[in-house]
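Cross-posting from the chemistry board since nobody answered there.

I work mostly on the small-molecule side, so proteins are not my area. We synthesized NAP and want a rough idea of how it might sit in this target. Sequence and SMILES are below. Is it possible to get a predicted 3D structure of the two together?
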Amino acid sequence: MQAWLLEKLGSLENMHLGEVAEPMPGPREVVMELAFAALNPADRYLAQGQYPARPELPHILGRDGVGRIVRVGTEVKNWEPGDQALILRGSVGVERAGTFARMAAVPADSLAKIPHGWSLEQAAGASLVYLTAYQALTQWDDFKNPGRVLITGASGGVGVAGVQLAKALGHTVVVLSRRVEKQEKLLAIGADIALSPQDTQWRKRLSEALGQRRVDLAIDNIGGELFPEIIETLAMFGRISVVGRLAGPVPEFNTASLFFRRNKIGGVAVASYTSEESRVVWTHVTKLLKERKARPLVDSVHPFEQLPAAFARLAAGPMGKVLLRVAGTS
Ligand SMILES: NC(=O)c1ccc[n+]([C@@H]2O[C@H](COP(=O)([O-])OP(=O)(O)OC[C@H]3O[C@@H](n4cnc5c(N)ncnc54)[C@H](OP(=O)(O)O)[C@@H]3O)[C@@H](O)[C@H]2O)c1
């Protein structure tokens, strides 16, 4: 079968389209013929060697995907050939071969049904980013009541998921995006206030828009020079859930800025969810989305042969998820 093979760590450019043997399922696995796979920045980090995982090479990247089951292992009870499924967060594309291939072997406990009424495209890239956004919103025991939530990099996969889930949980949602047209789309899916992090006055405008109140929880996908500015927006006992660092290292900042308002910083690691926790959270996530009549947003769908162009689109800053169409292309 055809697969995108990462020959060595260092760069996404070390990937090429090649031929490998079709996977066979282990006793508790299924083999899926993929319809769509989704890209994540973590694929790039893994290719660059910036990720803890050191999979056997050549490695097939790709954590998310949907498809049709074509083979089932001897101990698999709940799935049959012909069933359609999506892949919940797990080892696929990290420690084991991923979804940038015509087929993938997947542990049966990493599968979920396509939520009712969702298209395959909507389902293809949802699980990782919604589970991440859910953890970012719910990891604080002292933050249970509706509050003011700020989301950076809000137009990306985690950001859009965060906006929809934060609204479903009753929060007031402030989003940061560098592009006006993306700010408008984020307002259309429920954000209450949209600002640009490149506007030097964004914190003043935020304070005005919130009636001089401050942020209770920030979900930060960006890091870099924005991080100290986010701290300055926090309320008394305000928290930051640190998800990503797309703008690189955070410059020196005065830790005294944390003292006076008793602020807290906490990392998010979606990989820390067990299979069972992922399933419980996913059930809650899909219920929240159904109640709000919200669906995952797809930025763009790229042909299987054009994975490098899909990664370029992801790096440029998408509006929702960037997908690879695996089935139906030659
Ligand atoms: N901790 C975890 O468990 C976990 C799980 C999933 C993802 N992540 C990480 O979370 C981050 C976000 O993931 P994602 O899937 O949402 O990414 P994404 O889909 O690529 O979107 C990120 C958004 O951030 C903005 N952005 C990108 N580069 C930027 C830069 N250099 N400076 C400022 N803004 C920039 C863009 O928005 P605008 O163009 O609108 O400004 C872009 O749409 C990544 O670092 C990813 O690795 C972590």
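Reply from a structural biologist on the board:
Welcome over. Reading the output above for you: The chain is about 30% helix and 25% strand. The chain has two domains: 2-125+296-325, 128-271. Happy to explain the token format if needed.
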